Amino acid sequence: MNVIEKDITITTKGEMDIIDITPQLEKIVNNSAISSGIICVFIGGSTGALTTLEYEPGLQHDIPKALERIAPKNTYYAHHETWHDDNGHSHIRACLIGPSITLPIRNKKVIHGTWQQVVFIELDTQPRTRTIYLQMLGT
Predict the structure, then answer these.
(1) What is the pLDDT of residues 72-113, one digit of tens each?
(2) Which CATH architecture has domain 13-138?
(3) Is 123 within 8 Å of 94 (Cβ atoms)?
């Protein structure tokens, strides 16, 4: 059994920047010693999230609108009192989506649907440089 760790570094444009990281994952897995196993993809940070979606312009427009209905930006969050910042909604949204995703690897390929891509969603109110941590386990 092999364990391989890699990182992906991305720079975001700020709140609601949705970045398709599928090509980077596929390249890393294809170039690794793992042909069968799993890959865990994790964002270290409490205002970023990872998920899958169909990476197309309609959903890139719809996701921010849906998140605004669930955790509105312009409402009171006690978090603002703690740190005197403006990203309470960012933490709530990240908490709901989640910081990680695990995908199967078969024949040196990341398994996902035809219209399913792995994306990072920047939920903080300003641009960030993010490190996405990858851990592959398999043979």
Answers:
(1) 999 999 998 898 889 999 999 999 999 999 999 999 999 999
(2) Sandwich (2.60)
(3) yes
